[in-house]
């Protein structure tokens, strides 16, 4: 539900605006950081209305900090192709597990039990 609200209200407008000033390579960075900053602000507003507490760095600050860190790591991941490597590792692991499963089934079918 949060994603369905934040995409049209925060992410898409920031992305479409930022593409005018920066290259296509970096267009996602301000959109991701802006989305997390808006999420942190909303967390602070919720804490204020529910608990009547003043804003603190704990609730929304950690969300905003996570957005800045996640957004800044995005170009690095794309540059070193870590996402491609991770997918290849996952596929290799799945094939390994499938191979173990087939090997144990074959062993069970070919093994004769002596009483």
State the distance separating the first and last CA atoms: 61 Å
Helix-strand topology string: HHHH
pLDDT < 50 runs, ≥5 residues? none
Number of domains: 2
Overall mean pLDDT: 75
Number of helices: 4
Question: Which structural class do you get from the secondary structure elements?
Answer: mainly alpha
User: What does the largest sheet look like?
Assistant: none
* Beta-strand content bin: under 5%
| Total strands | 0
C-alpha-based Rg, rounded: 24 Å
Q: Fraction of residues in helices? A: over 70%
Question: Which word captures the global form?
Answer: extended
GO molecular function: O-acyltransferase activity
Protein name: Wax synthase domain-containing protein
Organism: Salix brachista
Structure, described:
By secondary structure, the protein is mostly helical. 82% of the residues lie in helices and 0% in strands. It has helices at 2-18, 28-51, 57-80, 82-110. Helix 1 (2-18) crosses helix 2 and helix 2 packs antiparallel against helix 3 (57-80). The longest helix has 29 residues, at 82-110. It starts with a helix and ends in a 5-residue tail after the last helix. The relative contact order is 0.08.
